[in-house]
Amino acid sequence: MPALEVRNLFKSYFLHGKRIDVLRGVWMDVEAGELVSLVGASGSGKSTFLHVVGMLDAPAAGEIRFAGRDLFEMSDPAVADFRNRTIGFVFQSHYLLPEFTALENVAMPALIQRWERGSALRRARELLLRVGLEKRIDHRPGELSGGEAQRVALARALVLKPAGEAQRVALARALVLKPALLLADEPTGNLDPVTGEGIHQLLREVNQELGITAIVVTHNEALAQSMPRRLRLIDGQVLPT
Amino acid sequence: MSSDRHTLYRWGSLWSGAFLAFSGVVVAVIAAAQEKRTADLLGELSWSAVGWGPLAALLKGLGGNLLRASASHFPLPLLDTRLWLAAGGLWIVGWVLIGLSIHYIAAPGEAPSPARGAPLYQRLARYRDFNWVTLLAYGGGVLASELALILFHTMLVTGVHYGKSPGGEPRLLQASPTVAFAISLLIGFAVAFASGFFGAARARRLATPEATLGLLYFGLPIPLLLTAISANPDLQLRVGYRLREVSYLAGLLGRPELGYWLVYLGLALMMFLGITTGFVVTGSGKVDIRSGFELFIARRHVAVFRPSLLLSVLAILMFGVIPPLIVYAIVRAAEAAVEQTRIRALGLIDPLKATEAVHQWKMREQTPTAMMTTLSVGGVGVGVMALIIVLSVMSGFEADLQQKIIGTNAQVVVSKYADSFSEYREVMDKIRKVKGVMGETPFILNEVMISSGPNIAGVIIKGIDPATVGNVTDLRKNILPGGSLDALSHPETIVARSPEQPRRPEDDKGQPVLQGIILGRELAGSLHVSVGDRVDIISPLGGELGPQGPLPKSRPFRVAGIFYSGMYEYDAKFVYILLETAQKFFNMEGASGVEVRVSDVDDARRIAKAIGQELDGWPYRTRDWGEMNRNLFSALRLEKLVMAIILTIIVIVAGGLIVATVIMLVLEKRKEIAVLKALGVPDGGIVKIFLTEGLQIGIAGGLLGLLSGISWCVLIEKIGIKLDPQVYYIPELPVKIEPLQTIIPVLIAVLVTYLASIYPALKASQVEPVEGLKSE
Predict the structure, then answer these.
(1) pLDDT score at A176
(2) Which residues of A fall within a CB distance of 8 Å from B297?
């Protein structure tokens, strides 16, 4: 059974009062632990699709299931909790909170979960070490370079997600309770190719190590080619390339 | 095939229908106003209905009563029933028009969309269902809180028996009216808050329609009834006596209806607080009052508790706007000069280091939001400070007046209807046994004229017993040096004084000794007499009949002392003589009454009642000082309330500033709100964050206002502000710091900021994550 099932998804937005049907019956399955790239022309609805899957935006019709749960049946608080525990977002801009240090930013999801401050910061420190930013722990987002900020954002997306060897074993055993979904929306869009490749490398590593399911939206064909599975969004439909 | 049809509104008929229906309501109101009583009631209500209702009600309370007059004198040509029929007809026609304006017409032909048949996303079709349980909770809650308030108040004032004391006597739980009101108000507030909380938690939303219906249909009848009772003497006779404790307390305010509506507003406010709290706390799907995370975020967003901000606001509150601004400008100028010199020197050596210094220098600039935050804190602080100072000064005046009035007139007076009060000694023995009585003294009261040479004045003469009067009034203390109260009993000790020929006591030998009299300072001044001088008392009703009716009776007295009470009226109007002398002078057997001092001034009413019970009521009558001076004190209280309300407007203006500040914050943080939502903060959490941000401002402002307000009061008390003795009878501005009066402004400030932050906070929670993330 696939981890993520998208069925007949429709979404329109309105430009100058005119309806633009951007998603027109999207069908898509993603297996647990898979790393998928999604490419498409500008304005083809890649970001919209990602937002709908992450429950940030409302579709018009359709069905999305993650790990057997119907996302559209959930109550508002349950959606918030789902975003907090299960989904990790990485956006084109880092969207770090400017008033907080890198460490606090990474710890934010755990703090929302009302973890005790100390353990949240400890977990955040581990992840910052993992993404290679141990020297930037107490810096504010304004003092980080684009690549560094994006690494912090990635660490933040992973802070509540299951980690380590044990989880890999569990994943191997046909997937269990809390699978996680990493949604990256053009994470390298604002970066130069070299830095961007570093982020992609990190994404692949994270996917390998944590067994996290990930969808990476990009318009960089070369980077997309490096992903194990590649999809393309054309005419409101998701098709394999 | 409803899917192929869509609705179309004909705006013309919709709006004209609405207009007609509304006119119907207006005609109905006019028809109702045809009757005198309903007109009065409508006059009361219409004031509360206009936008600035509370203010208008205040103005009305202070004087004008235009609308009532115009409503009852408005000439209408139509008969009553015809008016009612017209109202009903207009209303029905209006609604029919509204109904006709809705049309279902066939949908324009268009190819079906590709999504036909796909399952609709449920949230798109989400509609707001009406929650009957919530309506019941809100409506029942407000009604229950009103009933609880009235019931507990009446019960506590009249006394409740509970259990038995070791002696076997039933215990009585009883409180003075103000304490009972405070307790029952708290109970009412708690009930309103709890029901609001429950209703909102049940509906998981604010449920505004339910709240409106509940407050209007369940909440209004009782205040309306009370207002009607206070406005309508007929109703007062029929049902008013059951609510006498409630109306007594409201009457203390001078305008009972104002009291009722203020209490109703308070209850509605508490319910609103309960509703919002219930929504915020249960917004995450379960009861969650933890807010460490929200506070963590909020404190970074608005850093209110910074020493620089707090100190600068405190400086402005204590020293005004100009002096701190001057100091700030000087310090900043000096700092800038030093820093610029340093940067230039640095630049000659290392330009990069200099750029860094410039950068750091620029980083210190305040953002607009920080500026707004400071202003809001200052605004709240000014409001709270003004409230505390003004209320304290007014309390000072009130306490001063009360002390003077009670000092001269006793706290409780027992008098007798009709017959002469010759058995006053036995009555005094009975009074002495009542718990709470500290002293009692008989008196005779009458009005006479006093003259000294060419000067003449009408005065109130009081026959007193010097032996016991000191236990009841402050007269003994108020006698100025040179005179003596005891000289009344021993008139022979008064040294006579005469400007022409100074005389010694032995000169008066052989002459009859004149009885002593004590005058007020102002009276002595206007009669040009002092201790030892002779004055004549003339009573118009002498008792002896002449050819044209009773002859005036005159008798000489010698001034035994002069008193100064501090109340102009008393010092100019009162004279005291010996009780026995007064009895003889007025041909009376007994006394006019007995004055009593009680242990607790605020409990005088209850003790007066107890004395009345001890004396078995008629023909005796007991009155407490509050009853005797009701007009004066209710005027004072009303004045204080009006001042409090007017000054609260300052706090409300500051609340407007807070609304603006928090809205600015919300706009500034749209992106952050979206990110927080993407990270999984529920809507309730976002509301909590921005509520906390507003509340921080309120708490900081309130505490600074409290600090500066109390400092100012202490300063006024210690240093004193001199008053012009030509105008005022008090040498200095009196100040009385009452704990409750200093706490309440702070609570008002916190409450106002809470209310002010709710709207922006709700707006913040409605930011769509996608919209926020797009706004780059």
Answers:
(1) 30
(2) 97
**Helix (H/G/I), strand (E/B), else coil: B591:** strand
CB-CB neighbors (< 8 A) of A99 in chain B:
300-301
CA of B283 to nearest chain A CA: how many angstroms apart?
Answer: 7
CB of B299 within 8 Å of a chain A CB? The answer is: no
* CB atoms B115 and A25 under 8 Å: yes
Residues of B whose CB is below 8 A from A62: 118-119, 121
Reported confidence tier of residue B59, pLDDT bands at 50, 70, 90: low
Q: What is the number of structural domains in chain B?
A: 3
Q: How far is CA B527 from CA A222, B260, B457, in A?
A: 113, 49, 8
Q: Output the six-digit token pair for A72.
A: 């559209």
CB contact under 8 A, A62 and B684: no
The answer to whether residue B719 sits within a structural domain is yes
Distance from CA of B350 to the nearest CA of A (A): 22
H-assigned helices in B601-682: 604-614, 625-628, 630-668, 670-678
* Residue B108 scores a pLDDT above 90: no
Q: Are residues B490 and B505 in the same domain?
A: yes
Q: Are residues B388 and B431 in the same domain?
A: no
The 10s digit of each residue's pLDDT in B216-229 is: 888 888 888 888 77
Whole-number pLDDT of residue B138: 92
Strands (E), B107-207: 160-164, 170-173
Angstrom distance (rounded) from CA B112 to CA B109: 9
Between chains, do A83 and B671 touch, taking CB under 8 Å as contact?
Answer: no
Domain boundary, last residue among B237, B261, B289: B289
Of A85, A111, A156, the CB nearest to B293: A111
Q: Are B607 and B689 in the same domain?
A: no
Residue with the larger pLDDT of the pair B268 and B35 = B268
Residue B75: is its pLDDT beyond 90?
no
A4-240 CATH, one of 2.40.10.10, 3.90.25.10, 3.40.50.300, 3.50.30.50 = 3.40.50.300
Please tell me the pTM assigned to this model.
0.74
ipTM entry: 0.88
Nearest CB among A61, A109, A114 relative to B121 is that of A61
Which A residues, 27 through 86, put their C-beta within 8 Å of a C-beta on chain B?
A: 51, 54, 56-63, 72-73, 75-78, 80-85
Q: Tell me the average pLDDT of chain A.
A: 80
Rounded to the nearest angstrom, the minimum Cα separation between A218 and chain B is 17
Query: Where does the pLDDT of residue B40 fall: very low under 50, low under 70, confident under 90, or very high at 90 and above?
Result: low
CA separation for the pair B511, B556 (Å, rounded) = 13
Cβ atoms of B455 and B475 within 8 Å: the answer is: no
Cβ neighbours for B647, distance < 8 A, ≥ 6 positions apart: B383, B386, B387, B390
Band of residue B705 on the pLDDT scale cut at 50, 70, 90: very high
Chain B nearest-CA distance from A190, in A, is: 13
Which of A6, A24, A76, A81 to mutate to probe the B interface, most B CBs <10 Å? A76
Record: contact B121-A58, CB cut-off 8 A: yes
What are the pLDDT digits (tens) for B191-204?
A: 999 999 999 888 87
Residue A215, min C-alpha distance to chain B (Å): 16
What is the rounded CA–CA span in Å between residue B261 and residue A17?
49
Contact assessment for residue B683 and residue B294, using Cβ atoms and an 8 Å cutoff: no
Condensed to tens digits (0 to 9), the pLDDT of residues B582-635 reads: 888 887 778 888 888 888 777 777 788 888 887 777 778 888 887 777 777 777
- DSSP labels for A162-213? --HHHHHHHHHTT--S---EEEEESTTTTS-HHHHHHHHHHHHHHHHHH--E
**Residues B753 and B695 sit within 8 Å (Cβ to Cβ):** yes
Domain that holds residue B189: 131-289
Specify the range with the lowest mean pLDDT, choosing from A67-76, A156-165, B289-298, B406-415: A156-165
